[in-house]
Design a protein that fits this description.
Elements: E1 2-8, E2 17-23, E3 26-31, H1 36-47, E4 50-51, E5 54-58, E6 66-71, E7 75-76, H2 80-88, E8 101-103, E9 113-115
Antiparallel strand pairs: 1-2, 2-3, 4-7, 5-6, 6-9, 8-9
């Protein structure tokens, strides 16, 4: 018996509707893609789904209290929650530079998490008029 699985390709802006045919747990056919990226995406999504993680971490000394961060590569989908939990508990000290590594080897994946913006230190002191 052949199982059908439907995906929307995210390999390019077209968003092609993909249909995967699976027999005995093996991918046997892909249809619906308009470009080679669709087939590549479908194979990756079937065998090892991955996602880029974008979130924020706490930065109490920064001009803004949260620093946006992202993974430097797509993480295995099964590790996203673990990585997000770890990042939820992190506090960084300002100043932070765009691209600065915030966490190396998140969730033992070999993938780093970096700052996606620079964040200056907030000014302290009293301003008297």
């Amino acid at each position: 018996m052949i199982e059908k699985r439907h995906l929307t390709c995210i390999g390019c802006p077209l968003g092609c509707p993909l249909e995967l045919s699976i027999r005995d747990g093996q991918l046997c056919a892909i249809s619906g893609n308009s470009c080679p990226r669709g087939e590549e995406y479908a194979r990756q999504e079937f065998s090892d789904p991955r996602r880029t993680l974008c979130t924020t971490v706490s930065c109490p000394t920064g001009l803004w209290p949260r620093l946006p961060v992202k993974s430097t590569a797509a993480l295995p989908k099964a590790e996203i929650r673990t990585a997000a939990r770890v990042l939820h508990g992190i506090q960084v000290e300002a100043p932070v530079r765009l691209g600065q590594i915030i966490l190396e080897n998140v969730a033992d994946t070999g993938i780093d998490v970096v700052a996606t913006r620079s964040l200056p230190r907030k000014k302290t002191g009293n301003s008297s008029a």
